[in-house]
Specification:
homodimer; alpha/beta; Rossmann fold; seven-stranded mixed sheet; 8 helices; 10 strands; 14% strand; disordered N terminus; DNA-binding
Chain lengths: 278, 278
DNA sequence: ATGTCTTTGTGAACGCGTGCACAAAGATTG
DNA sequence: CAATCTTTGTGCACGCGTTCACAAAGACAT
């Protein structure tokens, strides 16, 4: 997410809610699969299942695009593929540059899914002079010095940042200055960009942390009901949890000493007891 | 959101809203940086800026954790780092397995950010016999046959799927059957999992498509008012120029959108972004 | 044509998340 | 100790997004 600005009337880009836009690619993928199997039509129910969403939601999403379905029958697969593609702007060519050709950048460059939908890798850019000219994914890596020229010459408006965190903001600024208005950021940093520039971030570490949170919750909660089975699974919860009923189960076991922080605070909180994984 | 499956009805895992949980890692990162600079305290305003969010939101988020701030002063950095880490479950060790050691899988294995927060790569698994034993990121790749044993022996509860789309569901099922309850999916497929299992997905293709949508909108908009180059992306969106009759729905050539800037990520849960290939 | 059956499209209710604005709490100064 | 200043914590209102539930629309059979 971008930092510079943060608010906006929740932008309904054109009457199409942001949440819906985020789901369109999902529908498109499911539809494409159906199309390849030559399925002529699908009901909202079937398509919703394939896309992993609720059918009512899907119908409402489609209603923002227009009335493309036929009552009693469903949606014409081919037609819908076309409409969604057009709506997403996939009927045109989108040259993309990837900056930072390390492990991740190289993996992205090799990713086939790129080209499959109108996205074309126009160039791979890296700051390391040693990388210059070296072929990655059948394409020579170019030095950062060329960045502006590349962007301009190829009319690139979408940039992918896969550099180390420390270089991200600077690269971002150069990209924006050169004309890029959409950025996909893989570096673990908050990018600050001017208005009008879209930033989406992909952060591995954050995703894992969110999973860990839920995992921890699950471990603490199942502990009570967990008599003996699966004792080897790293979830030997402390006996402190008398009743971890789902209600609000807020078994407060005080937190261990303020650790490195000698603060004298006392959180009204403190929860999960010691869990010890392998 | 993260999965194609519906976990609990937006259950507040423990009184902590999902949206807040998704931001905690962001705060943690900003706090860690401050900690390394030996900054003792921060105000909600400073921290919010560093994390790229609104200060009111940050304060509200923290209020779900408890009252850890001091009015008139701010928050104790070290203490907050500890509290958030504990809340996220990062004070414990989380063994993780990565299945599918292709370009992406290898990149993930080499990703340093993994270990930095309690996540330890316990094993790299691939179905290709030729890969077996081959060292990646200083660790021998193991064959899929060993999957169940690895999960059990290491008490792994978090799995990362970086296989091709076609193999994802099957791998997912084996992981779950073996005891994994949280999955980070990089394969472009909707995974179906039983209740109690969390799935978060990272899909590069989807992220790019969302950017393309906004990019297209921006282009169309600029075309209409091309006069002023690319400098008027005001935030004072005049609702005035809303698209023509909303009922158009047809105009194949597509009408330029109205509205302005674009929303960065959002998403109830997730909003969160997630992305990637396979 | 008429009736029945299927599936869409959507009005309305509801819940979550966001942001404002301010009272309360504590630090700080005189 | 009182006054002032700073910053937190939160009540409240608002809007987006989700879901339900159903009328409308069309296909299909008789």
């Amino acid at each position: 997410m971008a930092t510079g600005r943060t608010h906006r009337p929740a932008t309904r880009s054109r009457g199409i809610p942001e949440a819906t836009v985020a789901r369109l690619p999902l529908y498109l993928r499911a539809l494409t699969a159906l199309s390849e199997r030559s399925v002529p039509t699908v009901s909202s129910e079937e398509l919703a299942t394939a896309a992993g969403v609720n059918s009512a939601k899907l119908r409402k999403d489609f209603s923002y695009l227009g009335s493309y379905g036929t009552r009693g029958v469903g949606y014409d697969v081919e037609y819908l593929v076309y409409q969604i593609s057009r709506e997403l702007g996939l009927t045109q060519d989108w040259p993309v540059v990837i900056v930072g050709i390390g492990n991740l950048g190289a993996a992205l460059a090799n990713y086939g899914g790129f080209a499959s939908r109108g996205f074309r890798v126009a160039a791979l850019i890296d700051a390391d002079p040693a990388m210059a000219g070296k072929p990655v994914a059948g394409m020579p890596v170019q030095h950062t010095d060329e960045l502006e020229k590349i962007i301009t010459d190829n009319g690139v408006s979408i940039g992918v940042i896969a550099t180390p965190a420390g270089a991200a903001q600077q690269v971002c600024e150069r990209l924006v200055a050169a004309g890029v208005t959409s950025i996909l950021n893989f570096a673990p940093t908050v990018l600050t960009v001017p208005d009008g520039v879209d930033v989406r971030k992909v952060d591995l570490s954050i995703e894992l942390q969110i999973l860990a949170f839920h995992e921890q919750r699950k471990a603490g909660e199942g502990a009570a009901a967990e008599a003996a089975s699966a004792a080897e699974r790293g979830s030997a919860v402390g006996a402190a949890e008398v009743d971890a009923a789902d209600a609000d189960a807020d078994a407060d076991v005080d937190a261990p000493e303020a650790d490195s922080a000698a603060a004298n605070r006392k959180g009204p909180d403190g929860d999960v007891p010691a869990v010890m994984p392998a």
